[in-house]
Write a structure and sequence with these properties.
The protein has helices at about 1-25, 195; strands at about 40-55, 55-60, 65-70, 75, 95-105, 110-120, 125-135, 145-155, 170-190, 205-220, 220-225, 240-250, 255-275, 280-300. It is mostly beta strands. It has a single domain, classed as Beta Barrel (Porin).
């Protein structure tokens, strides 16, 4: 009798274990979503921006002049919706943003990019000027000779679009080829769509919140006509910038995205070339705010 009970117990235990194992084998396996992890992914994006700038004091210094324009106003130079954004031969004409990045973890990426902004000194303004101009009488700009003691100057006087017109305007000044902020960024990215909607399929549409900060150099091509002097019109490292940003990323079908950002920062340009002569320089500091929209792709190699 004891042997029969022992055999039955072994058979029952074996059946139970087999049943448990079979249940585990039959459980469906849910494949992990491509968008569940970002570490090791690369991304690239391209887009456009609009900018606003704070007022700034611009200091000009060279042979026979040294003066500061106080609280100078400036604006950007938007292209609007235009084919130039996708025309390889004219891509630098609009205000654009190009960035390439790599995810060092699921939530953080490092990137390098160019914010191609455009800064245009507002011609239709009257600003106070302090300093002096004492050019030789043979210079066309000598009509502006004098001592300036917080003196109002109309910068639209004698202005025409033609750089060769005489008499020349006191000043035309812009970083339009452009105000190139070449920078590196560290950005945090969080998937908010899957947290808000538990059954959300992020491989179809994913919504990410991002915030980050960056720093870099300014490499403008400054176009200026100062007191009738010839323009320099070459690229020149002119200073540095720091910035912070926040935005939203909308990723579609795992690999493609639209990204919007609001980026603000501070720019210090302490070595701006203004004419063909190295002794002619300018410096300024100002704050900027960019609104950015881009399209891009994200992938593993």
């Amino acid at each position: 009798m004891k042997k029969i009970i022992l055999v039955l117990t072994i058979l029952l235990n074996t059946t139970f274990i087999f049943s448990q194992t079979q249940d585990q084998i039959d459980l469906p396996v849910t494949p992990e979503k491509y968008t569940a992890h970002n570490k090791g992914k690369f991304y690239i994006f391209w887009g456009g921006n609009r900018e606003t700038f704070s007022k700034s004091d611009i200091h000009f210094k060279g042979d026979n002049y040294d003066f500061t324009i106080h609280n100078a106003e400036a604006h950007d130079k938007p292209k609007g919706y235009h084919i130039d954004y996708i025309n390889p031969a004219r891509m630098t004409i609009p205000q654009t943003n190009l960035r390439i990045g790599y995810f060092i973890s699921d939530h953080y990426n490092v990137s390098i990019g160019v914010d191609h902004m455009k800064y245009v000194f507002k011609q239709e303004q009257i600003s106070n000027v302090s300093g002096y101009v004492n050019l030789p009488a043979t210079d066309t700009g000598s009509l502006y000779n004098g001592i300036y003691d917080n003196t109002p100057v109309d910068f639209n006087e004698n202005y025409t679009p033609n750089d060769q017109d005489v008499p020349p305007p006191f000043l035309t000044f812009e970083h339009t080829d452009g105000l190139n902020y070449i920078n590196t960024e560290l950005t945090r990215v969080d998937d908010i769509s899957s947290k808000i909607f538990k059954s959300w399929n992020s491989d179809k549409i994913q919504i990410n919140l991002l915030e980050g900060f960056g720093a870099g150099i300014l490499l403008p091509k400054t176009n200026t006509r100062l007191l009738g002097k010839d323009r320099y019109d070459e690229f020149h490292i002119s200073g540095y910038g720091i910035s912070a940003k926040a935005g939203l990323n909308f990723t579609f079908f795992k690999y493609f995205f639209i990204q919007t950002e609001l980026k603000g920062g501070f720019i210090n340009m302490n070595d701006i070339r203004t004419t063909q002569y190295k002794s002619d320089k300018a410096e300024q500091q100002f704050w900027f705010l960019q609104s950015i929209i881009t399209v891009g792709g994200i992938f593993r190699i």
